[in-house]
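Dissemination and training. As part of the outreach component of the grant, students in the summer workshop were shown how a complex can be specified as a set of sequence lines and then modelled as a single object. The example used during the hands-on session is reproduced here so that future cohorts can follow it. Participants entered these lines:
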Amino acid sequence: MARVINFNAGPSALPLAALERAQRELLDFANSGMSVMEHSHRGREYEAVHDEALSLLRELLQVPATHDILFVQGGATQQFAQVPMNFLGPGGRADHVVTGVWGEKALSEAQVVGKLQGGTARALVDAAPYHTLPETLPQDPGATYVHLTSNETIHGIQFAVQPGSDFPKAAAPLVVDMSSDLLWRPMDVSRFAFIYAGAQKNLGPSGIVVLIAHKDFLATGRKDIPKIFQYRTVAEARSLYNTPPTFAIYLVRNVLAVLKEQGGLAARERENRAKAAAVYDVIDQSQGFYRCPVDPKFRSVMNLVFRLPSEALEDQFVAEAKKAGMVGLKGHRSVGGIRVSLYNAVTLASAQTLASFMRAFIK
Amino acid sequence: MARVINFNAGPSALPLAALERAQRELLDFANSGMSVMEHSHRGREYEAVHDEALSLLRELLQVPATHDILFVQGGATQQFAQVPMNFLGPGGRADHVVTGVWGEKALSEAQVVGKLQGGTARALVDAAPYHTLPETLPQDPGATYVHLTSNETIHGIQFAVQPGSDFPKAAAPLVVDMSSDLLWRPMDVSRFAFIYAGAQKNLGPSGIVVLIAHKDFLATGRKDIPKIFQYRTVAEARSLYNTPPTFAIYLVRNVLAVLKEQGGLAARERENRAKAAAVYDVIDQSQGFYRCPVDPKFRSVMNLVFRLPSEALEDQFVAEAKKAGMVGLKGHRSVGGIRVSLYNAVTLASAQTLASFMRAFIK
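and obtained this result:
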């Protein structure tokens, strides 16, 4: 059937051109008579893709030479454990800014690791029930790092989302889960000690995670944990220590190439802001029919959550939207309601189609 | 260009029909108007694929109800650490049968974990320089588990490869790295406490690992390690605890469906033995031109290694084979020589083409 409009929260829509390229090359990549996924990860053909993905990321995000870019597996969920395994040693302290379900999970795993390794992990801030975010953080010295989740997909709240606003200052190196945040706009990477992001939002398919980390911070990592979990192992091997998920990285390359062709991240930011505005405007003009529970200052431009007057109407909304060719609108099962994810691959036209549908649905 | 004959050691050749299906469905999976990789892992369409992959594995390998099948990420290399993290507690002992480079790596990571968790890991057998394998193992009581690598891809040696032969008996639950061994033939899964296998040999693309484990053994796993690393977490969530690499699992499903259509594992074993015999016969009849360093009893049917009279001739062999449409023949950089990987997706005709080429090359 014809392609639908896909508002999934992740795995989510991918740029059509990136998928078409993969389809074209699936049986014969780079005129090699093989699929890219049948190539050795030590071969010239695959390595060119690997290096291009890394250099496109560096170019698009203007990652400074102080920072390494790594590819790892296991999802951001594995990073909840792997980050403290690397950095939370005896006497260390991880201060977590908990602003949603993902932040809760990150803290929980850090506490398990802390117990094993002799460090502690605690909530520096607990922002439950997650309708707003702190503008400043307690400046409590002595932390090894401060961890935050820059966009909470389930609750639809996002740090530093207002034009010109910045992330709050921290008393220690900032470690940030940017899974649903990275690559929707330009940003100052040098501000962060360690960024991790599961690809299945703005970057590619599931099964691959991007890390961007300050080399000095990486160098502080523990050396007594298994080699496969040490970030230095991955960094030294250019993310080829063991067999990487080659096809997933190939798709990330395809997505990044499309982003560049579309004018890079400044163009993305303009379009992403216009997409979010199209939907939030309907909410704000609906005289309470649609209600967004989020503090307007921190309304996410990636994941827009709202409620209707009843759950029955929400079900009807999802069902009628589906008939109109729009899927992925059901809110996360833990909070209910509606969620609209507007990652890079969702076009402005798609957001406008949804906005029109929302206006019509009121009547 | 036309598809080449691909003897890569992994990532490696995939069945053409599995790739063609992926190509056909890449933009519109299951008449949903989306690629499978754009679907939510919590949605009906993806879950059907996930469940089909699991049930095809269970059917093809006749996995008994005593055993769980899991999908995890990070490659077999991550399992080198994750297995002892789960099972090697204070006072525990992991006895490793070291029969090659991969076995060395598994022992090395287990020793690191042992140090962290208060257990020990040691070489029960060290078979260096890895040209033969032990037929029996020292029956040393007190081990928590015995670990072995059933096929060493670099050295071309394989346990239980002779028809009717069996794996050696162990004094403790057997944990086996079957990355380049699983699925080339039927086998008695009940014999093993824990099997792990990176997919990029007989199963699918890189980025996905299959685990087959006895439920009782899984239940002995530690509960004080991060949740994401506990196998029970994965088992309880049907391998959907966090976002799995959906497209990789979809491809595994495609490969398994092809295997079933081709007559299952008994048919695979017949063809795989014929393929290996075609190449070994040339070696044995070459009057020493080709020399296989492996004890004939343990010559691998998956990875066939041999030398030529000089490195210059080996280079020439690889170059001329490439001109004849055959790639992936260079031995691992750590041992040199030639390596021919004959995983399921390599046809008998391809092995015969190589055998003819080898005969002609002598002259």
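The longest strand of chain B covers residues 120-126. Students were then asked to discuss how this feature might be tested experimentally.
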